Amino acid sequence: MGLFDTVTISGLFCYHCGAPAGEEWQTKDGDCLLDSYTLEEFFTKNHDVYTASFSGDCTLCNAWLRIGLPNETEASRLYQDFERKKWESRYRSEAAAEHPNHKGYEVWCEKCKSDPGAG
Questions:
Q1: Is 41:16 a contact under the CB 8 Å cutoff?
Q2: Deepest in the core among 1, 57, 66, 84, taking most CB within 10 A?
Q3: What is the pLDDT of residues 34-70, one digit of tens each?
Q4: pTM to 2 decimals?
Q5: CA 108 – CA 117 distance, rounded (Å)
Q6: How far is residue 3's CA from residue 94's CA, in Å, rounded to a whole number?
Q7: Nearest-CA neighbor of 55 among 77, 72, 76, 32?
Q8: C-alpha distances in angstroms, 83 versus 36, 59, 75, 88?
């Protein structure tokens, strides 16, 4: 079946019967080296994962559960900020190359302001 990492997540309930879910959840969104983490440790180490999928089981009905959780760590926020700025910078550079007189999109010509894709 393949390797996975184990993440400890407490306070979750089965969406079938309402009983507490187990605390050990598997994910393939990390390095998949059979390492064990808390949720915070996992998301901090894998800051480039925006949302992770986890699989675990119910302690009462033994149903196999699947959930997705967003990465809300500071490391992820900083990574997403950096990626956004990198993309914006690249977009500005490409747009300015098409219109050499423009220094940034706040001084683009009227045509560019209304249609940034116009060239």
A1: no
A2: 57
A3: 999 999 999 999 989 989 999 999 999 999 999 999 9
A4: 0.68
A5: 12
A6: 41
A7: 32
A8: 28, 40, 12, 9
